[in-house]
Amino acid sequence: MIYLREVHKRSGTHAGAGYPLASGVLRGLERLALTSSVTILCGENGSGKTTLMELLAAGTGAQAIGESGVHADKTRLFGQAARHFRFVMAQRPKRSFYFTAEDFSRYLDQRRAMMTEARQALDEIDEGYQGRSALARSLAQMPHARTLGEMTDQYERELLTSSHGEGFLSFFGGRLVQGGLYLLDEPEGALSYANQLSLMALIGRAVAGNGQVIMATHSPVLAAYPNAALLDVSAGGIEEVRYEQLPGVQFLSHFMRHREAILNDIGLPNPTITHN
């Protein structure tokens, strides 16, 4: 399913506008067609992938996890920029969210604080309601117990007691469901290559259930998602390429073939090769 089909700049957008419209990727963006259920943005650091993802999130109303403080200010900034573009939707998804590793860490902090607050409230009620009826104590505890129960049951594995990578996968397993538009900015940050394959399987499940995924990544594993539209983002613009043409894939392939020579070129000794 393709919910977001096209983004194009409205006429009359001021060429001298400030950030983020003045950034290279948005300044040169006239039209972006999304032709696949999975679109993958690739490119070097500073190429504008995150800027483009922020714009798409603002234009589609995707909810950022852990949205507060600095991110809320950024959301307002990109919301203003999104008014200069038209976002063509085939239909509205049932749900959508925008994921970044930074927001995930903030979300964990908020989740920890909420669960701690609920547990403290239960302890205070236990102490403060001594001598009162069990019914009165139960009624006072109910909203806090419900909060803990709902948060505990939200994911297959509790995020706060999981490793970072396990927490990522548990989060995605609970959020990548049917009928959604999902924007993922470099989700590979805490994932091993094997866990990146697990994430690909979750994406596949969401896509099979009428989902659309737009993802920015440096990972050659995630970029290998079958039939994804691969867009190389660079100072020269946005270009659809084949997997083998991706600079990151070419570099990794070259490095694997010429590892010793490359390490020697940057002043590091060649790996010691031992033969048993």
Q: Strands, helices and their partners?
A:
Layout: E1 4-9, H1 24-27, E2 31-33, E3 38-42, H2 49-60, E4 63-64, H3 69-82, E5 85-89, E6 95-100, H4 101-128, H5 134-153, H6 164-175, E7 180-185, H7 193-208, E8 212-216, E9 229-234, E10 237-241, H8 247-257, H9 259-265
Parallel strand pairs: 3-8, 3-9, 4-6, 6-7, 7-8
Antiparallel strand pairs: 1-2, 1-5, 9-10
Helix pairs in contact: 2-3, 4-5, 6-7
N→C terminal distance? 54 Å
Q: Report the radius of gyration as a whole number of Å.
A: 23 Å
What is the number of E strands?
10
Biggest sheet, in brief? 7 strands, mixed
Mean pLDDT: 82
Number of helices: 9
Q: What would you call the structural class?
A: alpha/beta
Q: Spatial order of the strands in the main sheet?
A: 4-6-7-8-3-9-10
The coarse overall form would be globular
**Helix fraction by DSSP (H/I, runs of at least 4):** 40-55%
Description of the molecule:
Helix content is 45%, strand content 18%. It is of the alpha/beta class and 276 residues long. Strand 7, helix 7 and strand 8 (212-216) form a beta-alpha-beta unit. The radius of gyration is 23 Å and the shape is globular.
Quick overview of this protein structure:
With 276 residues, this protein is α/β, with parallel strands linked by helices. The chain has nine helices and ten strands. Helix 2 crosses helix 3.
What tags apply to this protein structure?
alpha/beta; single chain; 9 helices; 10 strands; 276 residues
